[in-house]
Design goal:
mainly alpha, 68% helix, globular
Length: 170
């Protein structure tokens, strides 16, 4: 078995366990809901095929939905985030060339660019997730506030995880 497959299988399992066992039970101040399971999709190789990316995003989201009993909300939001991921990489980071099976990360992109990459995709994910959850514009201001607070908090936790467990610059 190839090293990249094993690494991503282990990453998937650990992030899902962290999300399901710890973070799904957190609701700080009624607004902050950290979702770090999406780090699995963010760190997949940049040259992954679009169909495989969407399938893995669906599998990741539906796994979280299964344990959280959320009826496909996470699957829909994660697939949307995965769908926009190549466009975000091409639009904002077109001058960065990724090798075969090379994943976006601080070592390749630098801290600031990687932070921007993570925040944009987390914001897309959280916007879809929270508006699907509410499915109404009546609580628009509260939903937008929740999106912003949760996106900042999730990005913060994701960056801590990447800094602790990610690849260092050589």
């Amino acid at each position: 078995m190839n090293n990249i497959y094993l690494k991503n299988i282990i990453r998937f399992i650990l992030l899902v366990l962290l999300q399901v066992l710890v973070l799904n039970n957190m609701n700080l101040m009624g607004y902050m809901n950290p979702y770090v399971y999406i780090l699995f999709i963010l760190l997949l190789p940049a040259d992954i095929s679009g169909v495989l990316l969407l399938l893995l995003a669906f599998l990741t989201g539906i796994t979280i939905d299964f344990f959280g009993n959320t009826l496909g909300l996470n699957a829909a939001a994660t697939v949307l985030m995965a769908f926009t991921r190549p466009k975000v990489l091409n639009l904002f980071f077109k001058n960065i060339e990724f090798g075969q099976n090379e994943e976006p990360g601080i070592a390749k992109m630098g801290f600031g660019k990687f932070l921007r990459y993570v925040f944009i995709l987390v914001l897309i994910h959280h916007t879809a997730l929270f508006f699907l959850e509410v499915f109404s514009f009546q609580e628009f201001r509260d939903t937008v506030y929740r999106i912003i607070i949760s996106s900042v908090f999730s990005t913060f936790i994701i960056m801590i995880l990447v800094l602790l467990f990610g690849k260092r610059k050589q």
